Amino acid sequence: MAEEPDKVSDSLEKGNKSYYYWSQNLGHDQINLQNPQLLNKEVVQEKPVLRPQVNIEKYAWLEEKSVVKIYIELPDIGTHDKEKIGTDYHLGLPKLYDKIRPQESKHRVLAQKVILTLQKNREKTWGVLRAPVRA
After folding, report:
1. Which residues contact 114 (CB under 8 A, 6 or more apart)?
2. What three-state secondary structure class fits 117?
3. What is the pLDDT of residues 81-117, one digit of tens each?
């Protein structure tokens, strides 16, 4: 059986918020235990679940007249439910050679790889994927 808390120290520590203070000064019959009242309501935002991030450093690319395709090998990526992959993959290309049209770009998930098809802003030969680093 649990030990009963010391009524005096509980009252001293919690003051008029102590159960013993209220039960001694008001009596059990005056405490409304049947109809609890909401004292405060605050919205609590859930913290996002942090997923592990994997930086992709190995990829291949192919240039066509109006698109650039990036091929990323990810073993068994196509066998997973898209909503439950559990890892954020990050392809760190600081700046592409030229502008693209993201709204017209696409991606395909195959069994062992992902193909990013980036729509070029203008039909121009890039020759390189990344923009040159300027000092």
Report:
1. 71, 72, 74, 77, 89, 107, 108
2. strand
3. 777 777 888 888 889 999 999 999 999 999 999 999 9
